[in-house]
Amino acid sequence: MSEQVLxxxxxxxxxxxxxxxxxxxxxxxxRSREETDARFAATLDxxxxxxxxxxxxxxxxxxxxxxxxxxxxxxxxxxxxxxxxPNREFDVVENGVTRRLxxxxxxxxxxxxxxxxxxxxxxxxEDVEHHLWRLDVMRKHEDITALRGKTLLGxxxxxxxxxxxxxxxxxxxxxxxxxxxxxxxxxxxxxxxGVRGW
Length: 198
Hints:
The chain is of the alpha/beta class. The chain contains four helices and six strands.
């Protein structure tokens, strides 16, 4: 029995057509990749712009509504804060390297107590959970945060406060600060079970 070998080949015209088609596909893929990259870059730019606008919005709300009314509102609840610092940063040095421990949107203090306020345009339960974690970190590192011997209070401030976030914040012992933009007013809600100190 003999073996037959079938040789398949392309004539020059077929080979040229095949190479042309492959070249066209490669060109289309390159153009598509460039278009996708351009769209992705435009989307990133738009997201950065939105993030900047949201950050500015929170800054405006904090400056125009929250800061002017908060010290007075807290004084009415028996907390006389003598200083108020926006965007307070706490850094820790480990092995000669400085790293950010945490940052607080608004930090009020006096000689006996401090209050860390997280400010959100829209407050969600996850925001409250993160702030509770932050308060624990601040207490754990009380030498860095200058909290030794002081009571640390927590508060959540927001313009649009989701129901689940509101209930969770109050159950967790946080003050709830409602910013009412149309009236340039803050309303402080005390937790029904009392304010928790960290």
